[in-house]
Design a protein that fits this description.
164 residues; four-stranded mixed β-sheet; two-stranded antiparallel ribbon; membrane; transmembrane; transmembrane helix
Length: 164
């Protein structure tokens, strides 16, 4: 049977891992960018210091590649276990796009991560621009490029293997 001091130390180590990095309240989720634990109030990027500082430095770069409108990557929590992450980038080409005018289509990836006995549901919003939307089944422009590189590499290897 463990001693009471060992049990208290174990409880403190378990509870310490689930505390908000900003305010020491109960942490509900991890930021996908900085991987620190935050409560529901500090989970949005603008509310915790590592990502807010990074976002302020990148504010000149985070503009829609079509119209130049400022975009605001964001993340938020709807409940203690449901978190949304929107990077405001096209999943097919990786460039920033605005939500109102130049996002042709959206879909969501749901990732469930287990933390001890609790599970968290992270819903990533995937956007596609006008060019990548028809190619979204293969991964947009990046996916087509990867496929062409693989096919080209295989073709070159076969050519050099069969060429005397």
């Amino acid at each position: 049977m463990p001693k009471s001091s060992e049990v208290n130390q174990y409880q403190r180590s378990v509870n310490a891992a689930r505390r908000c990095h900003e305010c020491s309240e109960e942490a509900l989720g991890r930021c996908p960018d900085c991987h620190m634990c935050f409560c529901q109030e500090h989970f949005p990027k603008q509310q915790h210091s590592p990502c807010a500082e990074k976002q302020m430095k990148l504010s000149q770069i985070q503009v829609c590649y079509v119209c130049g409108t400022q975009v605001y990557p964001d993340q938020w929590s709807l409940s203690k276990t449901t978190h949304y992450v929107d990077q405001s980038t096209c999943r097919g080409c990786g460039r920033y796009i605005c939500d109102d005018l130049h996002t042709q289509s959206k879909d969501e990836d749901v990732i469930i991560s287990r933390e001890g006995l609790r599970g968290h549901r992270y819903q990533y919003i995937n956007r596609y621009c006008d060019m990548c939307s028809p190619l979204r089944r293969v991964g947009g422009i990046r996916g087509v490029t990867r496929g062409l590189v693989v096919i080209g590499t295989i073709a070159a290897a076969v050519f050099f293997y069969l060429h005397p």
